[in-house]
Design goal:
Structural class: alpha+beta
Number of domains: 1
Order of helices and strands: HHEEHEEEEHH
Low-confidence stretches: 144-154
CATH class: Alpha Beta
Mean pLDDT: 79
Largest sheet: 6 strands, mixed
Strand content: 35-45%
Shape: globular
Distance between the termini: 30 Å
Length: 170
């Protein structure tokens, strides 16, 4: 079991969600993977997962997900299970929301890549923005940084992390 590759899988998920790259998120799942959120029946397959995530992202101006902890245990030669603790801030439909999430994952090694074979997301805590912080939003903070040019080191790292992306998509 390659714990680093599995941890990177969880981080790639959060980065891709935050960047709105739903197709990249879907590629992190096995073709017949399942996905369960707090509403609806569990979904099966990359296309269904991508469709759900795209619909869920509608109205979302910005998000920031941070992996706080990740427990991983082997579950056979080419399988593992994990629990990922995530903190998230979302600007959606004019409101800033804060979440604490716990992801219950199953992983499989397929064609040399660790992928999700199941992801179940449980919302442990959710709150709207504090009224005293109503003037602050994640989307506004991101917009202030949008004009900052990527420095050479950041560009180098991003190109290695996302090798299938061209510089204009980073």
């Amino acid at each position: 079991m390659d714990a680093t590759a599995i941890r990177n899988l969880a981080v790639r998920y959060t980065l891709s969600i935050d960047d709105g790259r739903i197709d990249d998120v879907a590629s992190l799942f096995a073709p017949d993977a399942t996905f369960a959120a707090r509403y609806g029946e569990p979904l099966r397959g990359r296309a269904s997962i991508a469709e759900f995530l795209a619909a869920n992202a509608r109205g979302q101006e910005a998000s920031a997900h941070s992996v706080l902890g990740h427990l991983i245990e082997p579950d056979g030669e080419d399988r593992a299970v994990g629990i990922v603790q995530v903190a998230a801030v979302l600007d959606k439909d004019g409101a800033t929301l804060r979440f604490s999430l716990r992801c219950h994952d199953r992983y499989g090694l397929l064609d040399g890549r660790w992928l999700f074979t199941h992801r179940g997301i449980v919302v442990r805590h959710q709150e709207p923005a504090d009224a005293r912080q109503a003037e602050w939003s994640l989307a506004a903070a991101r917009a202030e940084q949008a004009d900052a040019a990527l420095d050479e080191q950041t560009s180098y790292v991003l190109a290695r992390i996302w090798p299938t992306r061209d510089a204009g998509q980073l």
